[in-house]
């Protein structure tokens, strides 16, 4: 068991199952533009690099000229419906409580406004010292500059820091920052895409973190 003092959590697919609301918002956007909707798995496969990339991928290159309009439609709709079907994964609250004495932050590539509202709306904001969205900084995951300020601010060594997430960007962020990585295999990203990156640890549920880290 590894001793950690600082845990960094992803949001989508890690703390919260946001997939259904994202799919609904993307397909609402496509329908509003007169385009064919996409199946759930395809939309989910586009998640992880921020809203702009999500919309670009959903539109496809042939509809790229509609990106600005699509972004406006998506932001307005998703902003009104981001908690319609989004829920915490089982065991999240218990896990965060177990590590209550540890430093914890959320780092997501989702827009800051959406990230904060979801974390607050699900009632877990008090567990975290900071909530960072994709447009809050000049860089996104997997850029290690997202992690460095916290290591300096908290005075916590890399070997006592772990990044927990369900996406390749989370595992790559950990590798780039020189800290431990833990892949959540029950999130939005197919587990094979995570396992091929060789994360240091894996879990099916965040409750399993209690047996991996102290």
Q: What's the layout of helices and strands?
A:
Layout: E1 6-9, E2 16-17, H1 19-32, H2 40-45, H3 51-59, H4 67-81, E3 87-88, H5 92-98, E4 103-107, H6 112-121, E5 130-132, H7 148-154, E6 161-165, H8 168-177, E7 180-184, H9 191-195, E8 201-203, H10 209-212
Parallel strand pairs: 1-4, 1-6, 4-5, 6-7, 7-8
Antiparallel strand pairs: 2-3
Helix pairs in contact: 1-4, 3-4
Question: How is this structure best described in words?
Answer:
The structure is a single chain. This protein is α/β, with parallel strands linked by helices and 214 residues long. The protein has two domains: 6-17 and 87-212, HAD superfamily/HAD-like (Rossmann fold, 3-Layer(aba) Sandwich); 19-81. Helix content is 41%, strand content 14%. The strands form two sheets. The protein has a six-stranded parallel sheet with strand order 5-4-1-6-7-8. Strands 2-3 form a two-stranded antiparallel ribbon. Strand 7 (180-184), helix 9 and strand 8 form a beta-alpha-beta unit. The longest helix is centred in the middle third of the chain and has 15 residues, at 67-81. The mean pLDDT is 95.
Can you describe this structure in just a few lines?
The protein is α/β, with parallel strands linked by helices and 214 residues long. The chain is built from ten helices and eight strands.
Keywords summarizing the entry:
single chain; 214 residues; alpha/beta; Rossmann fold; 6-stranded parallel β-sheet; two-stranded antiparallel ribbon; globular
